[in-house]
Structures are given as structure tokens and as C-alpha cells.
Request: fold
Amino acid sequence: MLESTLVLIKPDGVERKLIGEIISRFEKKGFKIIDMKMMTMSKTLAEAHYAEHVGKPYYDRLISYITSGPIIAMVLEGENAVQNVRNMVGKTDPLEAVPGSIRGDFALNTTVNVIHASDSIENAEKEIKRFFKG
Reply:
């Protein structure tokens, strides 16, 4: 089924010059980039994006990190995009992410982990609207 999903290359991915490598992996897999921009996430946007994590011990660190520098936000389209992209991204904890996945190859820890990808079709729709308002 053709789907769209949101991918964010986080500040460490941008700083470490991994943008081309990451985009190349998605393009080689057959995903189409529908929209893309470089931006610095505001605290308000970060709080909305990570609202489900409010109250968790890592929340403040997460907000501080994601707003610390530029990110790349992009919408990818392809067959079963949400699950296929999540598989390519790998588990949140880089110690559990398999080699060959983006996090398995590049992530440093659970906060500084290079990339975000929507985890469901419903969240993809919400997140795409949040970052690409019409």
C-alpha cells in the first residue's frame, strides 16, 4: 500500500554530514521524496512533537537536543512506507539496532540517534501536518 511518512535527520546527523548518506539509502530503496526542508526546530514545535514523552526522565534533554541545531525534515512516499522506513532506521537504542540500519551504523545513544521516523500511519499524518502545514 502506498503511504507517506515523516523522517527527521536530527542535529547530530546534520552536524556529522550524514544527510547525503541517509537520503541516498532511502532513494536506493525506492522511496520518493515528496517534500523536504532544513530548519531549526522551535521549542514549541519540539514540545508538540515529543508530547508523549512529557514527564519522562529524558524529556528535557530530548527537547534541548532536538532544538540545538538544524534538522532535515522530509516526507517520503512508497510501498508500506511507515514500516519499511522504520525497519531501515532501526531501533531507538543503537545497542539494539542491527548493523546496516541507520541507527545501527551511525547512532551514538538513545537521545543522539541521528534520525526520527513516524511509528504509525496515524502519527505520520499528524507529524507531516505538524512540519509541512499545507
Strands lie at 2-9, 32-39, 71-79, 115-117. DSSP finds seven helices and four strands in the chain.
